[in-house]
Design a protein that fits this description.
Elements: E1 3-6, E2 9-12, H1 13-22, E3 31-34, H2 40-52, E4 58-61, H3 64-73, E5 88-91, E6 95-96, E7 102-103, H4 110-118, E8 123-128, E9 141-145, H5 150-159, E10 163-166, E11 168-169, E12 172-173, E13 181-186, H6 193-201, E14 206-209, E15 211-212, E16 218-223, E17 226-230
Parallel strand pairs: 3-4, 3-5, 5-8, 8-16
Antiparallel strand pairs: 1-2, 6-7, 7-15, 9-13, 9-14, 10-13, 11-12, 16-17
Helix pairs in contact: 1-2, 2-3
The structure holds ribulose-5-phosphate.
């Protein structure tokens, strides 16, 4: 895989291609949702370039990190207090199955991502090939929970058949942009994502899950030799 250095990170060129390709779908006057992560990073950079050439758009960022990047790129921002429905949202994913269902939240931004990926007329997912799976669940499912009673919530999560692991960063509990904890739920494969999502949502303490069901319109897959744009009529992988 061709690697690309970005600051102190090394990313695949495939992510760059996928992220940049998505910017082609953005039209003048649109209000867009901007996801979070190292693939959408390239969309944000490209958008900054297009804005400096005259493109007029507004965006709602899905995380503090994306807000910071978007401001740096010169992208005008707005909020859901001003906007009911976005024209287009672009976001990465940790896994994409053949039905276009997703696991997201690897970066811990899943709640705000669910807002921008749901309240949008069109949702484009940008990934490299490594994210395509026949069945969701190899990637631990991120679930955002409130800190109060978190051990009780973890026990409830375990009763649904997973091993819950409280996310940490630098030995400290990871805190989401919303002031909550993230629990990474290790399942041995997820057979029925929609019903699992509903069961998880009913647990006391659960804010949101990283299962994104039935929201994806298009997947842009970065590959070592270019990009492939996959619509729901063509099955993955
Ligand atoms: O859900 C996410 C953040 O919460 C990201 O979209 C997901 O983790 C993919 O990230 P990357 O593009 O860096 O691989």
């Amino acid at each position: 895989m061709i690697k690309l250095e970005r600051g102190n990170r090394v990313d695949s060129l495939a992510k760059k291609w996928a992220g940049e390709k998505a910017a082609e779908y953005i039209q003048d006057g649109m209000t867009i949702g901007l996801g979070t992560g190292s693939t959408v990073y390239w969309t944000i950079l490209k958008l900054g370039e297009l804005i400096s050439q005259g493109l007029q758009i507004k965006a709602i960022p899905s995380s503090v990190e994306t807000e910071r990047l978007a401001k740096k790129a010169g992208i005008p921002l707005t909020t859901f207090s001003e906007v009911n429905m976005l024209d287009l949202s672009i976001d990465g994913a940790d896994e994409v199955d053949a039905m276009f269902n997703l696991i997201k939240g690897g970066g811990g931004a899943l709640v705000r991502e669910k807002f921008i990926d749901t309240f949008t007329r069109k949702f484009i997912v940008v990934v490299d090939e490594s994210k395509l799976v026949s069945k969701l669940g190899s990637f631990p499912l991120p679930v955002e929970i409130i800190p109060f009673g978190w051990k009780v919530t973890c026990r409830s999560l375990a009763e649904l058949g997973c091993t819950p692991v409280l996310r940490k960063r630098n030995d400290e509990r990871f805190i989401s942009d919303n002031g909550n904890y993230i629990v990474d739920c290790h399942f041995t494969g997820i057979d029925a994502p929609a019903s699992l999502h509903s069961r998880l949502k009913q647990l006391l303490g659960v804010v949101e899950t990283g299962l994104f069901i039935d929201v994806t319109d298009l997947v842009i897959v970065g590959k070592p030799d270019g990009v492939e744009v996959v619509s729901p009529t063509k099955n993955l992988p």
